[in-house]
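Why should sequence recovery work at all? Because a backbone constrains its sequence more than one might expect. Tight turns favour small or flexible residues, buried strands favour hydrophobic ones, and helices have their own preferences. The token representation captures these environments compactly. In the example below, the structure is given first.
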């Protein structure tokens, strides 16, 4: 998570990018970076990184913007470019207001409450609203000392979904004007995801500028604007209907996710990858999140790679 503040012009714009080009720093000593993230699939990663280019974005205050596209198309990179983490090569990035970015969930060695409040003054009313909006009440009931349970490497281990919800709560509690969210819905089950959309992203945060990277396509129609990653480092923007009309890649993604079952499979692939990351900590427990993932992940992977081969080669 990173908090940035920049006093921009007093306009209705929250975020703008003009002719932006962004590249991940290439580290010769590390072969892992010999990838072209935007023309590669998970199966075939070769060549130098190309990054993001020709990025032009205008995001209004209190807009809800969704970044979507295939896995590896640069959704997370674009969020990090907006957050000032992915290095800018040229062009302009303007941020009007305070901004917070949440990427891969992390937990500090502290109580759940401390992980959420994260050094800010404790405000009971705000805290209760955040806990409710992030669907944490039932987690608190399950944890041995509720919100005072010590978590992190030295404490109780949490499921992927619990980590994701606590991370989201930390982002919301911070109260920034602009909230950049990476895939917060994929680690939680679909019912909780819907609840978080309604109560948090389109609820408690509704007056904030929200940029959410996701391929949970059932939720995208509530967005004011879509940013579609074309897969070559460029983006296409517009309302859902506009993109659906003029962008073939976007249409293909929608067609693929056309029925609910296919969509669930697509989402599960990404979830599986996330869990693998969490699994680096071998002692973690995954409760219902893990079960759901292992029962759905395998079919999804083959369907998804077939989709990539059909549409992008
Ligand atoms: N923090 C980072 N540092 C270095 N490279 C990154 C970082 N985040 C993403 N990338 C690069 O971007 C590529 C994929 O893009 P990513 O933005 O993660 O796509 P998506 O979110 O659409 O799945 C990765 O293979 C990786 O090389
Ligand atoms: Mg991503």
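From this structural description, the recovered sequence reads:
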């Amino acid at each position: 998570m990173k908090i940035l503040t920049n006093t921009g012009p007093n306009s209705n714009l929250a975020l703008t990018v003009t002719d932006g080009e962004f590249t991940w720093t290439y580290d010769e000593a590390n072969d892992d970076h010999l990838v072209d993230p935007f023309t590669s699939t998970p199966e075939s990663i070769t060549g130098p990184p190309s990054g993001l280019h020709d990025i032009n974005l205008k995001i209004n205050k209190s807009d809800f913007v969704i970044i979507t596209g295939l896995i590896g198309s640069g959704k997370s990179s674009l969020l990090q470019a907006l957050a000032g983490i992915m290095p800018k090569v040229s062009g302009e990035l303007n941020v009007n207001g305070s901004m917070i970015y949440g990427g891969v969930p992390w937990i500090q060695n502290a109580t759940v409450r401390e992980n959420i409040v994260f050094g800010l003054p404790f405000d009971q009313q705000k805290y209760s609203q955040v806990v409710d909006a992030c669907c944490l009440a039932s987690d608190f009931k399950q944890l041995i000392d509720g919100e005072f349970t010590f978590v992190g490497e030295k404490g109780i281990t949490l499921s992927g979904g619990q980590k994701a919800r606590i991370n989201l709560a930390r982002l919301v509690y911070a109260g920034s004007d602009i909230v950049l969210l990476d895939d917060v819905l994929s680690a939680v089950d679909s019912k909780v995801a819907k609840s978080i959309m309604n109560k948090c992203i389109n609820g408690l945060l509704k007056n904030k500028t929200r940029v959410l990277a996701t391929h949970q396509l059932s939720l995208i129609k509530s967005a004011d604007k879509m940013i579609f990653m074309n897969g070559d480092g460029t983006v296409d923007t517009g309302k859902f209907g506009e993109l659906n009309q003029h962008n073939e890649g976007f249409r293909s993604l929608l067609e693929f996710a056309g029925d609910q079952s296919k969509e669930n499979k697509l989402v599960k692939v990404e979830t599986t990858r996330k869990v693998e990351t969490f699994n680096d900590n071998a002692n973690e427990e995954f409760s219902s999140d893990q079960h759901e993932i292992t029962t759905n992940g395998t079919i999804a992977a083959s369907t998804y790679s077939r989709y990539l081969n059909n549409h992008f080669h």
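A few observations help interpret the result. Residues 24, 35, 37, 69, 71-77, 80, 229 surround adenosine-5'-diphosphate (ligand 1) (CB under 6 Å).
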